[in-house]
Amino acid sequence: MDLRHLILAVYSITALVEGVMIGDKMPRPSSSDACASLVALLPDDVHFPGSSEFAKDVLHYVESSVQNSTCSVEPQSVDDVGNVLKIIGEIGGHTSNANFSSTTGVQISMTAFDDVIYDSATSTVKIGTGQTWDTVYAKLEPLEINVVGGRIPGVGVGGLILGGGFSWITDQYGLSVDTVVTYDLVLPSGIFIQVNSTSDPDLFFGLKGGFNNFGIVTSGGGISFDLNATNLVNAATSNFSFNNIDSKAQMIMAYNISGVGEDALTAYLFYDAPTQPDVFDEFLNIPSLARDLKVRNFTEFLLTTFGPGTNLPFREKEHAVPILRYTTSILEAHP
Fold first, then answer.
1. Distance between CA 128 and CA 135 in Å, rounded?
2. Phi and psi for 134 in degrees, rounded to 5?
3. What percent helix, strand, coil does the chain show, rounded to 5?
4. Domain count across the chain
5. Above 70 in pLDDT, residue 249?
6. Mean pLDDT to the nearest integer, 244-270
7. Are the beta carbons of 41 and 60 closer than 8 angstroms?
8. 129 phi and psi, to 5 degrees?
9. What pTM value is reported for the model?
10. Which DSSP helix (H) or strand (E) runs through 186?
């Protein structure tokens, strides 16, 4: 299948307005003032603590990022986004840390931006940023089309497509940002623009872009190992890192150290075709606690392997070290 796809990202995740007194000047508007102005502008789309809509709007993938904002707002159109930003004035970002994709000011929820529209004439897909990648996959699968998106359920479109975007098919087609042809963007000033390599190459470079094609039927799943098999699993992981040359084969190794008696190692194996590659044989030959490897579609692979849980109830702190190849000594250094 030859698919070149387009992701139009109307991107605005969080915003913060704080009241600040400067010398003898009047204080800047506070987040409460911003919420009052938003109610006047969008009375049906502004929500406050205590409502189910507010709870949904401020909920994040990990608890460490969740903050109770003064209010939340759900713009329904590009014009709404522009008007909201004119009132608020600042845009935030995406991560699991507090104050990056959450705020104590005004939380902007993009849930209304949930289009997934395939244009067969141009072989492009328009994707709204207010949804998660697993819902995007599910909408595209009846068309036998896929995109370079998140590796587990619950990962949002907007944050991944702007932050890089590792996918199960990245070795074949690049990062998520490498597949973007055009962005729809609302600037902090509230002005809506379309950004591509021709209209604004510098801004487009900052947001990133490109195009690619791929199929949809996959095989894979998870294998769990007892900690007693750590040396064997480390060796298999290192061998895969150094020796795998099949771009369709991908894996994630998770060291699950909970400290409450449920410690285990899990290898998440993925192959972008309905076959079982020899490159995984070393993992398959290690005695395992459980394994679930089969041919399934992309959405089924994500939901059965990682579970459907968006906004999982855990806290997270990350430290990243870029590594090209995993040696056994590096793998043995995990906590």
1. 11
2. -65, -35
3. 30, 20, 50
4. 2
5. yes
6. 81
7. no
8. -85, -5
9. 0.64
10. strand 183-186
